[in-house]
Model the fold of this input.
Amino acid sequence: MVYITGVQSNNSVNMHSPSFRSKRKSGKNKCENHDTLMYAEKKKHPVTTGIKIQADKLTKAFTEYPKKGFEGSKNANFYQFLTMGMVPYLTGSAMMIGVFNAASKFFDTPAAVNACKLGKKMGIGVIGYGILKTLSKKFIEVPVNMKYGIDVNLPYNKVVYELPEKDNRDNLVKHEYHKVFESVDFPRWDLLYNHESFGPERNGFFNRVAKKLGMDEDLQHSDQKTKPKIKEKVIQTKLFSTLSSYLWAATGVGIAMQKPWETLVVNPKQRLSDYKNYRKLAAAAKEKGQQVAKYNNFVKDFGKRFAASCKEFVNGSSKKNNIAGRILLGSAIGMTLLGNFVTLFDFNKDKGSKTQASISLIDDSKEKVVC
Amino acid sequence: MTNLLNTYIANQPINKPATREHTPAFTFDSKGKIKPMPDKGRLLPSRIFGSPIEYVKDLKKDVVNIGRAAKGEANDHELGRINDLAMKLGSLGLAAYLFVKNPLKLNKAMEFTGFATFFASMALWPKLAIQAPLKARTGVDIHQKYIDSQGRKKMLHQDPQYDLTDLYSREDLDKMGKKLGVSENIPDRDNFIKQRAKKTAVQGNTLWMMTAGIASPVMSALACNRLEKPIGKAIEKFDMVSSEKAINSGNYQGLFSGLRRNLSERSLNKFLTQNADKAVDNNLIKQLAAKLGHGVNSASLQSAIAEELAAMKNNIKIDENFVRQALNGKIPESAFTSLSQQQRTALNSAMESGSLNGIADVISHASGTGKRAQDKLGKEITKLLSEAKKKLETPKLSDIEGKVRTLSSGIADFSAGKKVLDKYITARVGDKSGTYIANQWNRVGESLMKSLKLSMKDLKAVSQGNIDIITEKLANLAANDSVYDKTVKELMGLIGDYEGKTGSAFTSTVKQKSKEICTEGSKKFSSKGFSKLAQKLISPENKSTVDNIINVNTAERVSGAQSSFYRLLQSLDLFKRIKDGSLEQQLASVLQESGKNADKTTINRLIKTCKDMMLTATTTDYVEKLKSAGFNLSEKEYKSVMKVLFDSGSDTAIEKSLSKTMGSEQAKKMLSGFKAYKEEFMNKVANWRNGMTPELSRRTVNGVTNGANAVERNNLAGKPIKALIQDVAKQTYNSKKWLMIFGGIMAGLTAITITAGLFLGRKGATEKQVEEESRANG
Done:
């Protein structure tokens, strides 16, 4: 078993074998045996880095990983299984929209109109669920990152060395996009040491966090001091971002269930013909010297309806409704605020002293052997 | 490594009792050396449906874990479980919101049904379509669970790189080996089987991920579609039973004593506090009357409430007490005590007549000396009295708060009874979906549709108004005796049930209870001094409150639905008579009696017109239809044709059919309502030629009322059968189309998944090679 800090190789391999070198564009082999923290990349291009990672995952979730999975590849792993989880999310969302919309074109006019009203709301609901669920996590993650410098989504590029298989004996180096703190049991601390983005010191990252945590600036073992606290904050952030995200997602669907969406025109053909009619009308009016109201393009129309729906969601069409909408929105906001409160305030200042506990638990004067 | 280990140990919670969840992974041996804890992991028994007790236990753990996570102490496994729990809680919150938002009970119930079926589909799809078939064929349970040494339940094959196949027992391996067809004599057979199991699990999990997104929403939607009717029926039954129980309990106030009453009292309190200092003017009375009369929902009672409030404002008695308070010590007490008998009489008389000047005159004379002083005092007294009277006449709301509260309490008591009665009526004949009348209407339509056996093509044509197909299908139905008898029996069962639940028993219960509620309410209002309201509730001119709690629209709805059901029976009767030739004979004799041409062509033309009239005519166009078909009939002929068409005597095809399936006595009993309806129809709608024109509507001759007004005639004619079938066909077509699309998707996906499952767990080239080599080596 080869064990290199930070690289969990599954198999016994020869690291110098050409199989573990991916080819550069020039055709020359490039040795890739280190996982790479993507801190600088994310900091420089936060949006494109995220898109790049998601695009890579999405492509593989629909292509490479299912192929491997159906073959029962011995190189299949948990990351691939989790990444394939995007497939049911996306197909499920599309199907959910389809269930409420696909059949309506076969209905007679009044039934189709009613079905379309509900269908539109459900479609917006599915999209609202996804957007608010993703976005709302940032309401907690960003403040934590700002206050402590702990980015729970800090990505790294993991190099995976696969075993040769029947149809693949050469291209054995694969990349996976993981997060340093995706496991709270085993965060990838090793990637945070000696990284140029955090300064020249070995403990640059931990020094920075220690400073933000209000610990002494010249700590000798800032890593040992801060790790428990970082872990604590990561767990709390994950907990509250998870809890609040589903409440926000439910709020998103709730907003989508309001009346203003019922008359939204989604069909591009119809919108185009509406626009052409508007142009004609506007031109005719101009000739007569009359003024016409500005055209409601899709974005503008969508925005207006969104605002009206939010208003209806909060104010409700009846008193009971009003209370229900406010409770749902209030619980989402409340959970986010609670999450910020718990994560941003340090209630366990002496938690770092846990490292001291090791002194009493393990007697340094005695020999330690791992059985 | 040691460094990592130290960190790990350092992070273990100390000074806390060790729980199973947090037992350290390491211990020390007798020499003080670190060694791993003994392995306690084991497989859990495979089940398609989990145990509810286990579920509750796990839920409890998850809730505890949220608390631990909030302190920053959870692990990956616990955070993963919290994520699942949060997803369910979020969805539950959404279902609760939509539950409140939707006004109809069925829709409310479907929100939670959707929530339950979605999560059930997510859990059941992989189990039923992938796990179970694969286990049956290969012996590998891809969702095999195990419990680790820390007491955490996990999936055995979640991470293929984390090999836990050592947990398989010998029996498990042998069973899998046999099912997977692994040779008995290959070297390292156990490991070979484990690798095959892992491979199968990876394949199965991939199939799960690829199919779950399509399967879960569709499966959930199909389940909701199937559950909607039984849930609707259960709600209908619950409403019927609970409203009956409530109306018979008599304890109406008790039923509305909780939150609802508190809420309305809270609302009144708010109003009284906010407007305490405002004068009780007409505007305020209007607002207050609307608030107090909100639960009563009756315009005449609300106006009576306003009158009561106005009376509170005006009811000022000018007596000595009023005068003393008005003058408020500005006049010495002696002015009252030293009055002569004559002055006392004059004062009483002035108070009785309400003359403020008179009162001032008496008192000023009694207390003042000198004319000028007396005049001055008199003016001052008049001013004081006038101000006091004005103040009392337009009191502040706070001045009459006590009376308002008493009135409010009385109204709440009365409206509780009215609400119970409204609930009783609405559950049966309310104008909204989910009520008995609405559901029964659907049931009758569906029963008919089932008997007509329309294909999708027919359904589409009928939903677009194609009458030929309806005619053809009804003729087919009449031609098949067994189907016809079954249809008539089923429809009669539904119509009989309708008669029972909305008929005279229902009406008399409503009348009796409304009388009780109004009489009781009247007594209570009277005892509290609200005579106007008391009178309003029982006065003869206010019959609208007592008798017409079933309002006109409701009564029309009840009779309209009933007539439509009977008209359906008439149509079935007509088509049967066409089939057995009796209609032809009857019409021929009518034409022959009037000396008209009764050849085959004419009779067929008349039969066609009769069919058309039965299926499409409304009350105003029977004559027109006959005319446009070329039949210019006299009044007598018209009456005869209508009689043949709508009231063919007691020996009807329907009665014959029903007698076959239920016996003649029972049939007669069941058809008594139908018979009465036919008589009424002939009397009020089809009894004379121009009866359909409004100007010749209802007339009474010798005390007998013939004909009816337009509304009555419409209600009696019911919905034309074509329109009824067309409506039901539309619904059925939409529903079937949706079901075809998504049922097809589900069936296709299931077939593909199960077929794909047959290719999973098979021997690959490597496995075959290993087996061949071992075979070659003997």
About this structure: Residues 1-6, 13-21, 689-697 of chain B have pLDDT under 50 and may be disordered.
